[in-house]
Amino acid sequence: MKKGNKTLMAVAFAATMVQGVCLAEGHAWDDKALSPDQRAAKLVDAMTLDEQIALLRPVDGASLASLGIQLPPSIPAWMRQPKPAGAIGSAGYVPAIPRLDFPALQESDAGLGVADIGYLRPGDAATALPSSLALAASFDTGLAREAGSVIGAEAHAKGFNVQLAGGADLIRDPRNGRNFEYASEDPLLTGDMVGEEIAGIQSKHIVSTIKHYVLNDQETGRTVLDARIDEAALRESDLLAFQVAIERGHPGAVMCSYNKVNGNYACESDFLLNRVLKGEWEFPGWVMSDWGAVHSLKQSVDAGLDQESPQGGDPDYFAGLKDAVTHGDIPREKVRDMAYRIVRALFAVGAMDDRPAPGGTIDKVADAAAAQRVAEAGAVLLKNDGQLLPLHESVKSIAIIGGHADIGVLSGGGSSQVTPYGGSFRDARGQTGIAAFLSPVYDLSSPLKALQALRPGTRIVFDDGSDPQRAAELARHVDVALVFAVKPQIESLDAPDLSLPYQQDALIDAVATVNHHTAVVLETGNPVAMPWLPKVKAVLEAWYPGQRGGEAIASLLDGKAAPAGRLPVTFPAGTAQLPRPAIPGFDPARQVPFEGAGRLSPFPVDYPEGSNVGYRWFEKNKFTPLFPFGYGLTYTHFAYSHLLVKGGQDLQVSFKLANTGRTAGVEVAQLYVAVPGRTHRLVGWAKVDLKPGESQTVTITADPRFLASYDATLHRWTRLAGVYDVYVGKAAGVSTLHGSATLAAQ
Ligand code: BGC
Predict the structure, then answer these.
(1) From the CB of 164, is ligand 1 less than 6 Å away?
(2) Whose CA is nearest to atom 4 of ligand 1?
(3) Whose CA is nearest to atom 8 of ligand 1?
(4) Ligand 1: distance of its center to the CA of 290 in Å?
(5) 323 flagged as catalytic
(6) Distance between CA atoms of 740 and 697, rounded to whole angstroms?
(7) Distance from the alpha carbon of residue 472 to the mean position of ligand 1, in angstroms
(8) What per-residue confidence (pLDDT) applies to 354?
């Protein structure tokens, strides 16, 4: 240690002695025998008011100045300011407090890996995992934990201690530009998967958030819209997803969303923050705002907001916090509690004792393998007529067409964008400036090259798909045509409709017209329409499959891996089947990513479907979707028999499941139950791996909360005694084994 450092240490030591916070061998809060609550209390009480307030006001941890290029005049001043000294370079940053040995808060996005949208940390990369939709499609909570631990370990090794992950908004609109960051339309699947991912992240001594609390269910007008829904419906849907995920994952922080909920901004909603989250759910962590989601000081603080994230160009309300305390508008004790919640969360996850620091070791090989496992487990086989897939040995020639399959696989855009190990490229399609900078990113993982590696004896040719007739000409002369279709999505913009862009429908149609062995591989962040479906033999939905997506897709097509994914979201037959056929507030002329909120007018978004989200809406309206929630084929067949339903206090079903096909496969058996008079809900599932000829007795116990209804008058969950309709099946609305259960009141 250098002499200067020793002197500094001595000064700091003397200062802490003066404050009376030092044990002979260190600080009082270093004592690991104490609980996180006790340790946090000691540390927070050693902080001055200014130090506590600093914790509540992170600054931007990155800057466009890091790019080191001449920025155009349109870039606002706050984005040009240099990166704060000490910041690693990402979302939010609070400087350390050396005299208390309190670490800096270093926040990084997001849920698909340690994000870097290009300018945050030039030259840095991370493992790019598949989209959350892909992860949820695995219906595999163990895999969710594993994915989380990859993110947590990499964040830790890069020096971050807060990961802005845990997207848990329900999919209420299949055009939402951020659905690739969310898990599903179902509160149980979302809660379980997101909760486990959070637990995985935090197992590496990193705080994870859960976000965006709540009802940030469309991107159009996200900063100005008012989401309107009745309380019972909200409790049974979006809030329930958060509640389950919070109970399972214990995130250190909750990020409140941009939008209003029933008239109040989410970040100043006493109902959402004080009453439900901190009151009823006894959430001990802190509430941080989304970036620019704060609209007041006192109202927000009174409602339960603890931390104002960087506001971008918008007013910094928390700048007035000290004055408000001095004038008695906000109690001193309140500020202490706000800071305490942050410090407590850091202790609770182990971030105080095992401090992240840049330059840690990352097992890139193991993490890439995990990314591939998720991509393989989450891809959903939607059609496979004549068993076109897996590609038979007799297939001697293949045309791969479109989707940049010669180069890589598509990823989702916005704050969650990971710059992958292995590299990426942008498809700017002639755009320049900021538009080019925000154009779709492809992870360099080529399905073409991966398939060539698996099938050295097969002639595999490629066409970029830009000219349907040329592509069809190529496809005409091969045994099998594989068309890769992409649909980019980016945070802040919803898709105008369910169609594939870039005239890909015409491309698929042209290819399938001449080659009757055509399969389509979809790389989308949402359900899409498939006008060509009857003409193609097979469809594989690969979502945004991450940095090993090419290898995963090739393995699935070739049969090295077996498809095991099930849809976490209903694929509608058209927008007319949706609760809102047009996206409220959507203006086709204003498709500008991250357009400033200031120029938008507020508008309401009504959710009359209530808790009948997704497949429940389809059941209520007797709509037939293109593909239902829970749906997905395998390379084998499963038979269900011998249903036994046990009621009373708890609901438990058991049944026999047999693999009657010729290959090993994974079945996701789903249990749906209807509260009398209401639509069926997913209340549990079992993921079962069976060899050919093998069978197993499967038992599923219903999650009790999903058998209850929320009574907004009595302010509690109630379960009425009665006969509950029960079915076990392969998908929502597909009742393979049907029964009923007499359940007691609860
Ligand atoms: C997004 C958040 C993200 C934050 C920081 C916001 O625009 O909505 O999800 O964590 O930016 O990058």
Answers:
(1) yes
(2) 291
(3) 290
(4) 6
(5) no
(6) 19
(7) 42
(8) 98
- The token pair at 602 is 């507020």
What is the full DSSP assignment across 77-144? HHHHSPPPTT--SSSEEE--BGGGTBPPEEEEE-BTBS---SSSSTT--B--PPPHHHHHHTT-HHHH
Distance CA(53)–CA(321), nearest Å, equals 7
- CA–CA separation, 571 and 626 (whole Å): 5
In DSSP notation, 426-482 reads E--TT--HHHHHTS-EEES--HHHHHHHH-TTSEEEEE-SSSHHHHHHHHTTSSEEE
Residue 519 CA to ligand 1 center (angstroms) comes to: 37
> Strand, coil or helix: what is 35?
coil
The Cα 181–Cα 173 span in angstroms is 14
Contact 53, 335 (CB under 8 A): yes
Which protein residue's CA is at the shortest distance from atom 11 of ligand 1? 291
- Tell me, what's the pLDDT at 736? 98
Ligand 1 atom nearest 594 alpha carbon: 7
- Atom 5 in ligand 1: which residue has the minimum CA distance? 91
Give helix 141-158 / helix 364-378 axis angle, nearest 10°: 150
Q: Is the CB of 415 under 6 A from ligand 1?
A: yes
Please state, in angstroms and rounded to a whole number, the distance separating the CA atoms of residues 719 and 171. 26
CA-based angle 579:584:587, to the nearest 5? 135
Lowest mean pLDDT among 119-133, 550-564, 625-639: 119-133
For a ligand 1 pocket test, name from 176, 259, 288, 491 the mutation site with the most ligand atoms within 8 angstroms of its C-beta.
491
Residue pLDDT, tens place only, 332-364:
999 999 999 999 999 999 999 999 999 999 999
Tokens of 692: 């050919």
∠ CA 672-676-677 to the nearest 5 degrees?
105
What span, in angstroms and rounded, lies between the C-alpha atoms of 685 and 338?
39
User: Which of 225, 415, 490 best tests ligand 1's pocket when mutated (most atoms within 8 Å of CB)?
Assistant: 415
Buried b (16+ CB within 10 A) or exposed e, 55-82: bbbbbbbbbbebeeeeeeeeeeeeeeee
Q: In sequence order, which residues have a C-beta less than 8 Å from that of residue 568 and are 6 or more positions away?
A: 133, 136, 137, 139, 171, 183, 184, 185, 186, 189, 629
Q: What is the reported pTM?
A: 0.96
pLDDT of residue 283: 99
Average pLDDT, the chain: 94
Q: What's the CA-to-centroid distance between 563 and ligand 1, angstroms? A: 33
| Structure token pair of residue 129 | 């995992």
* Catalytic pick among 116, 290, 463, 703: 290
Token pair for 599: 């120029």
| Ligand 1 binding pocket mutation candidate from 218, 290, 416 (most atoms within 8 A of CB) | 290
d(CA 35, CA 462): 61
Query: Is it true that the peptide bond before 214 is cis, omega within 30 degrees of 0?
Result: yes
Q: What is the DSSP letter of 525?
A: S
Q: How far is the CA of 211 from the centre of ligand 1 (A)?
A: 9
Closest CA to 194 of 92, 300, 110: 110
Average pLDDT over residues 434-447: 92
> To which H or E segment does residue 255 belong?
strand 253-256
Nearest to 739 by CA among 630, 625, 653: 653
> Per-residue pLDDT tens for 524-545?
999 999 999 999 999 999 999 9
Determine the pLDDT at residue 25.
Answer: 61
* C-alpha separations of 364 from 128, 149, 419, 605 in Å: 11, 13, 14, 43
